[in-house]
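Hello everyone,

My group is preparing for a crystallization screen and wants a predicted model to guide construct design. The compound we'll soak is flavin-adenine dinucleotide. Before spending weeks at the bench, it would help to have a computed complex in hand. I've included the protein sequence and the ligand's SMILES below. Output in structure-token form would be ideal because that's what our pipeline reads.
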Amino acid sequence: MQHDHDIIIVGGGMVGAALAARLGHTGLSVGLVEQGDAPTAPSGDYDLRISSLNARSLAFIKASGTALPQERSCPFRHIDVANQDGTGHSLFSAEESGMEDFGIFIENQTLQYALWQRLEQLPSVSCYTHCAPISTGTASNARTLELDNGTTLSARLIVGADGANSTLRALAGISVTSYDYHQRAMIINVETELPQQDVSWQVFTPTGPLAMLPLPGQRASLVWYDRDETTKAREQLDDDALKTAIETAFPKRLGGITRIVARASFPIKRQHAQRYIGTRLALIGDAAHVVHPLAGQGLNIGLHDADTLAEIIIKGRDAGDSINLLRFECQRRVANQAMIAATDSFHHLFTGAKPLRQLGDLSLQIAERFPLAKRMMMQQANGLNPFKMR
Ligand SMILES: Cc1cc2nc3c(=O)[nH]c(=O)nc-3n(C[C@H](O)[C@H](O)[C@H](O)COP(=O)(O)OP(=O)(O)OC[C@H]3O[C@@H](n4cnc5c(N)ncnc54)[C@H](O)[C@@H]3O)c2cc1C
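Reply:
Good plan to model first. Here are the tokens for the complex, ready for your pipeline.
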């Protein structure tokens, strides 16, 4: 069976679903291919995977007509960055950067579910679940995609949003450069004695940062970056021992831990596709790039890819036109390369040899002393133009 669409998107994660919703909202015919189930409604305890969404990402999601449930998200207005021995410290405040807040923290599942709910309302979007591409080819003014359930799809443009191990990227013969940080991020959702407010904080230690992302009420998501082997040993601790380890390592301002709600760990790497585009094909999100998560920007830059591509598609006459795709690649590669370099330098400045760490401390002191530099850094991190004065 063959189905024709304007655009096919492979991967219904947060980035792929957001692009499908934005394009479907304008009436374009979109086929979304997802190997898994449609996401289910979040309920009860918070999901382990939490992401920050900055101003540009929120505006993009809003432009697709998607409503995010406020009760499961937490706005943050301050970012507190310090090193462990207290020689470097900087407090970034949304107000002094000319913004109401820096964005929100939201569970990945809540965001993905909200986007899929929106897709259900859009008559021009068809979701193909439990299937994956096995081959792709070009036809006149179109690209075809053969799925493992016997269906063939065709469209003017096929977008790969199928994550770091993208099948579409492999089928298109696009290779990646990658780097293993030999670090893992242990994510621990906790209940705390103190209510968490609107501050997200990060403390750099020589073996990796400790971060606290606030959730509504007396909940927080802790991210503990450390060497592979140390994290694997820490994962063996029972809840009481882990609670004690957190209370010892994390700053006292977190308050006591009343319950470990859930935990898991993820390897940390960076990866960049050699090309973002091919004939009537484009890659977005983690399929195109994976950055160190310490600055909470991986999903944001994936949504910015989707935003840029959507604008080009909506304004253009042929979604897969090679000049338009080249424009997409030029704009996004420069921005993403800058983010990869910035997160990489943060990692090396704060976890490298002592002279590098001293440089890291100095950068926090500079940020603290030069409000304009600080404001520009924050606007850049929010996907806003730092040179536009408000
Ligand atoms: C510890 C950690 C913390 C992070 N915190 C943040 C944060 O605070 N802020 C932030 O911006 N980013 C953060 N990130 C990064 C963020 O999680 C990723 O950048 C984001 O999830 C990428 O989304 P995606 O939709 O591109 O890919 P994915 O989330 O990987 O989604 C890919 C989708 O494609 C589907 N798929 C895969 N293969 C196929 C196939 N062959 N056929 C069909 N479907 C397929 C998958 O089932 C999935 O639904 C963090 C990452 C880590 C590891």
